[in-house]
Each structure stands twice: as structure tokens, then as C-alpha cells.
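User: Sequence recovery, please. Input:
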């Protein structure tokens, strides 16, 4: 359990973990705001992109999170690997 809380590169435990909900929020905010802006100022068809953006980011969040980022060495790591190092 303690190995999962340490950086695999530098061994320090100063990690920032990106949760699935935070990933969806960060990756969806700008495209949804742009779709809202273009929908109100331009053509309402842009409103149809909002569910697609959120659904796509939800599916990506399932694959890519939890994302661990070491605050010391900036090493980024996806889910813990289950294969042995070669």
C-alpha cells in the first residue's frame, strides 16, 4: 500500500492525485463554455456538442484516472502498472 503512495521515479510521497470527477471538470469546462457561447451568439446547433464533450471526457476519465503527479520531480503516472519491469 505504501508503494502506491510513492513516486515510482524519485521515491518521494509528495503526490497530487487527479480524480475522475476533477479530470472531467478540467477537460470539459472550456469546450462546454465555448459551445454555450457559440450557441447563444451563433447557431443553436452548438448546444448539441455539450453532451458529446462531457460523455467523451467521462469515457477518457475511466481510462486515464487516477492520474498521479509527483510534486517534486513532476513525474506523471497513470494507474499502477501490473507488469514487471524489464
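Assistant: Recovered sequence (86 residues):
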Amino acid at each position: 500500500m505504501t508503494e502506491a503512495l510513492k513516486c515510482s521515479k524519485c521515491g518521494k510521497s509528495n503526490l497530487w492525485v487527479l480524480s475522475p470527477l476533477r479530470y472531467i471538470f478540467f477537460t470539459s469546462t472550456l469546450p462546454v463554455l465555448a459551445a454555450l457561447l457559440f450557441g447563444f451568439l451563433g447557431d443553436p446547433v452548438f448546444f448539441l456538442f455539450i453532451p458529446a464533450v462531457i460523455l467523451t471526457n467521462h469515457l477518457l476519465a475511466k481510462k486515464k484516472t487516477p492520474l498521479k503527479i509527483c510534486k517534486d520531480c513532476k513525474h506523471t503516472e497513470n494507474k499502477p502498472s501490473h507488469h514487471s519491469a524489464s
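Confidence is low (pLDDT under 50) at residues 81-86.
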